[in-house]
Amino acid sequence: MNNAFEYIISIGKNTVFEDGMNTEFSRQLIEFINKYQNKALECISDYIFTENIADSEIKGEIFRWLGHIEDEKTYLKRLEILGKGLLNCKSILERDGAYLGLSYLYDPKAIVYLNEAIQKETNDSLKYDIQYLITELNARN
């Protein structure tokens, strides 16, 4: 399983990412998660939160796609990874990716992460986006 994920990361290193565009990287990532479910998410979480050499652009893209996947079996783990990313990642690319992933989920369960993140966020644009999503989700709740 780790070799499969390493292969996906190698694809990511040679990919130009554009918002909303499917790539070989995104297709392989989704296939990996669909095949290995929460075990895949543990591997991804280890990469995101423990790999000091991990590429911020790749991590941001992973976060975005975690929000796009529609799978109840992995939903709570994906929500947790996205929330943790928004709260703990140092790179704006990573936090923005985590925010986008949470916005794609569009779930009031994310409010707990968003409320904490807005208190910590230093980037004004991302802070505005987080506040907007909180308002939207509260209206939905």
Descriptive account of the structure:
By secondary structure, this protein is mainly α. The protein is built from seven helices and no strands. Helix 2 (about 25-50) packs across helix 4 (about 70-90) and helix 6 packs antiparallel against helix 7 (about 125-140). The protein is globular.
Task: Name its key features.
single chain, 0% strand, 78% helix, globular, mainly alpha, 7 helices, 141 residues, Leucine-rich Repeat Variant
Short summary:
With 141 residues, the chain is mainly alpha-helical. It has seven helices and no strands. Helix 1 packs across helix 2 and helix 5 packs parallel to helix 7.
CATH architecture: Alpha Horseshoe
Task: Estimate the helix proportion, in percent.
Answer: over 70%
CATH level-3 fold name:
Leucine-rich Repeat Variant
> Mind telling me the CATH class?
Mainly Alpha
Sum up the overall morphology in one term. Answer: globular
Class of secondary structure makeup: mainly alpha
Largest sheet: none
Oligomer: single chain
- The helix tally amounts to 7
Whole-number count of domains: 1
Strand/helix succession: HHHHHHH
Kindly estimate the percentage of residues that lie in beta strands according to DSSP. under 5%
List the helices and strands and how they pair.
Elements: H1 2-13, H2 24-50, H3 56-68, H4 72-88, H5 92-105, H6 111-120, H7 124-140
